[in-house]
Amino acid sequence: MFPLRDHNPSLRKPVITWTLIAINVAVFLWGLAIPGSERIVYAGCDGYAMFPACISDGRNLTSLVTATFLHGGALHLGGNMLFLWIFGDNLEDEMGHLPFLGFYLACGVASFLAQWGAEPWSPIPTVGASGAIAGVMGGYFLLFPKAKVDILIFFVIFIRIFPVPAWIMLGLWLGIQVVSGVGADTSQGGVAYWAHVGGFVVGLVLTVPLFLKRGGPAFWNRTHGHPPHPEATYPIANSTVPRVTRRR
């Protein structure tokens, strides 16, 4: 299950969302272009990645921010930026540009602290924007639970795109993170599941004041969980596979 787009167009240009995507891509390309960049990025407590053990020693606290802009590979970067592009513009639209930037960074810091709390003496570096983006998803979950999200379902040879309510897609995603985090052995690295869970929860909580400002439950009653403006519609292309009929 992989999200492709939502049916929730933003009313203003999401300049912060675009800027964050551009910065993440630029940092990734910078890392590829500079010889020895891997040593620079992951240079222990003096580098930019978040090492839980270093945080426990009270060292390199700035990595709680800098690690948000680092990624371990092109797929890691591409997946995160897709999620940010889908869900970020709507929260920026509701919050405003600069408040959204502060929200995004706060969720990123909180997500790394959640991962640190789960493994405070781990020597393994943690990087990526997924915790901050999980916070964006948590805010989206609260404000637009019934906004349609097109998801790609791929199972062996079965490939289909289905529109589903955001609360189903995001709720399943969060459930997968919790279950995976409980059963994961991260002693050799892997996905920072608790950073995802922490970011999502903090993002949802930080969005509560905005939700109440919009009227709280009354906001849901007015919109029924849908965006407070017309949803986007996408044409569905007709299949190019010829139809075969049975001969009599």
Describe it:
It is a single chain. With 248 residues, the chain is mainly α. It has a single domain, classed as Rhomboid-like fold. The protein is 55% helix and 8% strand. The chain has helices at residues 15-33, 37-41, 52-56, 63-66, 74-95, 97-118, 130-143, 166-183, 193-213, 217-223; strands at residues 2-6, 148-155, 158-165. Strands 1-2-3 form a 3-stranded antiparallel sheet. Strand 2 (148-155) and strand 3 form a beta hairpin. Helix 1 (15-33) runs antiparallel to helix 5, helix 6 packs across helix 7 and helix 6 (97-118) runs antiparallel to helix 9 (193-213). The longest helix is centred in the middle third of the chain and has 22 residues, at 74-95. The termini are far apart.
Describe the secondary-structure layout:
Elements: E1 2-6, H1 15-33, H2 37-41, H3 52-56, H4 63-66, H5 74-95, H6 97-118, H7 130-143, E2 148-155, E3 158-165, H8 166-183, H9 193-213, H10 217-223
Antiparallel strand pairs: 1-2, 2-3
Helix pairs in contact: 1-5, 5-6, 5-7, 6-7, 6-9, 7-8, 7-9, 8-9
